[in-house]
Amino acid sequence: MQINRTQLFRASCLSLLVTSLSFGIRAGTLNDFGAVFGLDKAQLASITATAFYGFPIAVVIGGFVVDIIGMKRLLVLAFIFHLAGILMTVFAQGYWTLYLSTLMIGIANGTVEAACNPLVTSLYTDNKTTKLNHFHLWFPGGIVIGSLLVFAIDAMHLNMDKQSLLQLKVGLMLIPTVIYGYLFSKLHFPVTERVASGVSTSGMYKALANPLFIFMFICMFGTAITELFTGQWIDVLLKNVTDNAILLLTLETGVMVLGRGLAKPVLKRFPPQVVLLMSTILASIGIYMLSTVTGPALYAAAIIFGMGVCYFWPTMLGFVNQNMPKTGAIGLNLMGGAGMFAVSLYTIVMGSHYDTIVKQANGDSTFAGRQILQDTLVIPIVLIVAFAGLVVYMRAKNKTKPLEQVAV
User: Fold this and answer.
1) Dihedral (C-alpha) 352, 358, 363, 368: value to the nearest 10 degrees?
2) How much is the pLDDT for 403?
3) Which candidate in 122, 255, 275, 325 could, as Cys together with 306 as Cys, close a disulfide (CB 3.0–4.6 Å)?
4) Backbone φ, ψ for residue 199 (5° rounding)
């Protein structure tokens, strides 16, 4: 059975593109859904959070079964959930249909990651962290495409009511969904790296008890919130600070695409733990600027923030798989599940907090948006301390073993 890793990698990128389009298009339509169906910010936060906890449910379950049923079957399930979720969103009639359709898309998104992260590490065992960055390039890439599509459709001033425009924007996701479903149905898949290397299931679970894995698992809460909550809510939090809040999201994610595309030279120059530390410092500066500056300086803030968060997700996964390979697919998927679950809870809490601040500020949502960003700033500041400790720990650890070339 011939494995075409180039085609598998391309199809994986396309499936992640659908995942990210759901983020980009939802970020650009969140307020419009609220206006059409009369939803407040707490309800919008609840709908948004549904995708984030649908994701960890799917990615964790997928992590437990991927070695058993195979990556191809998981991706067939992802296709079915994506198709159903997108169609339900197109024909949504209110809060509950939006809630359920977003949950289905979240489950689909998690299932894609549950299969594709171990697929990429199985295809590129000698180049894991770099290829995970190249794969996850398509997450911000899809957000850029989705955001620009929303912006372009709005700029065309089509003679359609608001709900029909929403249906058009969401329905565009059907195109790449059908394509990736077709491609995966025609390709042969390898077994996961853990199965191929002969590591037992009990050995995999034992590896999860490694204190370093537990540390990274906890840090994933913070890196995911810093990246995904802030990006997802830029349009809402800064809508009264700038008329082009959605373009800030596009600019930030464009920087992320460029950064992940350049992952190979960056990771050759700096080890993953140093990249994570530098990223956290830049993300902190970016969030601080987004919460304080106005005018053209906001675009500089978006660029700095994008530089900060661009390596978070794939480098966290790559660090774990590179340094603790026995954790296998479940290790990768528990990390992803931890991140998305943290974002879901944080989004719900901050949605309610946003409404409370607006009421206390007599309807001043400009103040509320900035306050939410400043509250969120605490997280990357804590991560600076955590990753500084990781750099020191890894430096000491590497001194105790023979010098060797480590693939990134």
Assistant:
1) -120
2) 45
3) 255
4) -75, 130
CA distance 37 to 163: 9
d(CA 239, CA 233): 10
Token pair for 294: 């106005």
Q: Which fold, 5-394? A: Growth Hormone; Chain: A; (1.20.1250)
If we measure between CA atoms, which residue out of 74, 69, 70, 68 comes closest to residue 111? 74
Residue the block writes with tokens 């437990």? 64
Return the pLDDT at 405. Answer: 46
- Radius of gyration for the chain, computed over Cα atoms and rounded to the nearest angstrom: 20
Which is it for the CA torsion 333, 79, 36, 236, positive or negative?
Answer: positive
Residue 109: C-alpha distances to residues 73, 86, 214, 230 (Å): 15, 12, 24, 19
Q: Rounded to whole angstroms, how far apart are CA atoms 40 and 356?
A: 12
pTM value surpassing 0.70:
yes
pLDDT digits (tens, 9 = 90+) for 57-92: 898 899 889 888 989 999 999 999 999 999 998 888
DSSP letters for 253-310: HHHHHHHHHTHHHHHHHS-HHHHHHHHHHHHHHHHHHHHH--TTHHHHHHHHHHHHHT
Query: Domains of the chain: which residue ranges?
Result: 5-394
**Mean pLDDT score, 105-129:** 91
Q: Can you tell me whether residue 245 is helix, strand or coil?
A: helix
Give the model's pLDDT for residue 407: 47
pLDDT tens across 307-340, in order?
999 999 999 999 999 899 899 889 999 999 899 8
Q: What separation in angstroms does the CA of 241 have from each of 195, 245, 256, 291?
A: 52, 8, 23, 10
Contact indicator for 298, 373 with CB cutoff of 8 Å? no
Look up residue 327 and give its two tokens. Answer: 């954790």
Q: Residue 63 to residues 49, 69, 273: CA-CA distances in angstroms?
A: 21, 11, 24
d(CA 342, CA 49): 10
From CA 188, how far away is CA 260, in angstroms rounded?
Answer: 27
Continuous H helices in 38-137: 41-69, 71-90, 95-123, 128-136
